[in-house]
Amino acid sequence: MLKIDNLHVKLEEEDKQILKGVTLEVPAGEVHAIMGPNGSGKSTLSYVLSGRDGYEVTEGSAMLGDIDLLELEPEERAAAGMFLAFQYPVEIPGVGNMTFLRTAVNAQRKARGQEEMSAADFLKFVRAKAKDLKIDADMLKRPVNVGFSGGEKKRNEILQMAMLEPKMCILDETDSGLDVDAMKLVSDGVNALRDENRGFLVITHYQRLLDHIVPDVVHIMAGGRIVKSGGPELALEVEKNGYADLMETA
Amino acid sequence: MAIAKEKLLARRRDALSARLETLTLPEGGAWITEARKTALARLETMGLPTGRDEYWRFTKPESLNAAEPEPAAVFDHGEETPVFDAVERTRIVFVDGVFDAAQSDDLSVDGIEIERLEDAARADIHWAKDIYGAIETRGQTPVERPHAALNTAFATDGVLIRVTGKAEKPVSLIYQHKNETSDAFLHNVVRVEAGGELTLLENGPAAARFNKVLEVDIAAGGRLHHIRAQGRDHERRAVTGMFVRQDEDSLFKSFTLTVNGRLTRNEIYVDLEGPNASAHVAGAALGHGDFHHDDTVFIRHDAENCESRQVFKKVLQEGAIGTFQGKILVERGAQKTDGYQKSQSLLLDDGANFLAKPELEIYADDVACSHGSTSGAIDKDMLFYLRARGIDEKTAMDLLVIAFVAEAMEEVEDERFREELVERLEGWLLRRRG
């Protein structure tokens, strides 16, 4: 599904190398977790894969199936099936959440050659998905993420994911700022989307999210590289001993 | 200094005499003849503005002063219906500044009296006598607005509206532009009697060059909702003056949407004379290329407990210029004043220009006033967030443009009109992309 090979990335504006040869493959149907200390390049990886400005790929590749992601605009990547759940979902005053969701769903449908959804069908669709995530009508009416609590913002991210039905989901520290109940709600939302045709890359600092979203593979990232990969037990090891040990043995 | 002042005044008078060459004071009944003569006398002491005048530094007055207007092509709307078309309303149509009875509805409406200025002007005595030119005169201090005095002196058409109850449906003034060289004056007066309520709609470019004055007098507890769309003709020019006087507990809400137009200067003067009155004036102006839009607003708080709100948004690109001059004046006795002023521009490229002059002048000690003026580009994080969800860059930009002007549009209380204006704006943005 997602195949990253020897990816090197520097900041566009300054001569600072962030990713120094990331190689990673997430097959369809699997959940991979990336853990790592601050500044290891986890968020950069998620931004580069989704097409944010400000980065320059100096070497390597990132493919989604047989599509070269790095060649595409952010919206084309989204239409191809990439989805990034933001660590800090952006507040957009003046744009209603509902308008935003409908525009996004229809833009992707259009890009894939499907018919746009009617207002009535869309309403049914969004209500059903919102209900599962305990997102009420008021949150749908309000401007995108404006005045949302941390938990509400993250639930709104998962709602978008559920509606856009991407092939490859990247969750960038989706657990940050969540209390136990919210974490459970968000995790349930993610788990409901797990299926054999969809891949997940879950970026997190903490093992606790992985109790709820159980990964198939855990990668440890440090210094712009994947330094170790293993099963879920690797996350427990990190939780117990920290990153320092692992980085020494790597 | 005195010499410089004399020189400036001489220039202003020269500009006026050049303008007056093509104008003759219209005839009418006693009351209006008096008002016109007084206006001309006032005008002669002021002259017409020059680029040296303090409130004309951002906007060149020459094309508004000139004896003849520059021609302006008539915009072809194609299949598109005019704004507010689907709304049940009393239509009053002017073509290039001249009343068109054939296109207008019957002017007898329950709860309101509507009269053409021409008819009222023939009467010996008229209720509008104390308003016509009087609120405009009040609005000449402390800043002179010569084009409005010119209008009071020379306008022959327009409507006088007296609202005695709650109007059942909006009154809609439609300004069609059909002649490429038309030069139009219109002078409208609205008197909202105690407890009366009206929605006044205005739309259309009106003429190649349009000079319009709207005088509004709202008695205690009266309410006027004003919604205006200034037409899409690219080459038109307009100078408009809205002069409002409000008694206690009255409400005035005004929103103007401007897209296109080579030059638009919208002046607003509001006098809050009675306690607990509320005035909200807002505008959204969007343009590119040869587009110059000027909002010059003056709100005078002269009674306790009044609230005023100014929200002006401009979206500019490809050399377009937006200007905002806004002032809140709080007089000595106007305690508990709540004054708010916000003017913002969104510059879509490096060529666009926004000039702002926000002012507060406060003589009371127990007031809450704020003003803020900003200009900036599209927020990159917002743009990326939208694009990451599959929304293409242009659509995402348009969404953010609509979002940017939303705060001004919120001043349109009636959802029907607000939604229609948003739809129109979406359509306009879509067409602009080509």
UniProtKB/TrEMBL annotation, chain A:
Keywords: ATP-binding, Nucleotide-binding. It comes from the Bacteria. Residues 2-248 form the ABC transporter domain. The keyword NAD does not apply. Gene3D superfamilies: P-loop containing nucleotide triphosphate hydrolases. Pfam families: ABC_tran. One of its GO terms (molecular function) is ATP hydrolysis activity. PANTHER family: ABC TRANSPORTER I FAMILY MEMBER 6, CHLOROPLASTIC (PTHR43204:SF1). Belongs to the ABC transporter superfamily. Ycf16 family. This is Fe-S cluster assembly ATPase SufC. It comes from Maritimibacter harenae. The lineage of its organism: Bacteria, Pseudomonadati, Pseudomonadota, Alphaproteobacteria, Rhodobacterales.
UniProtKB/TrEMBL annotation, chain B:
InterPro entries: Fe-S_cluster_assembly_SufBD, SUF_FeS_clus_asmbl_SufBD_core, SUF_FeS_clus_asmbl_SufBD_sf, SUF_FeS_clus_asmbl_SufD. GO terms for biological process: iron-sulfur cluster assembly. It comes from the Bacteria. It comes from Maritimibacter harenae. This is Fe-S cluster assembly protein SufD. Residues 180-404 form the SUF system FeS cluster assembly SufBD core domain. It holds the Pfam family SUFBD_core.
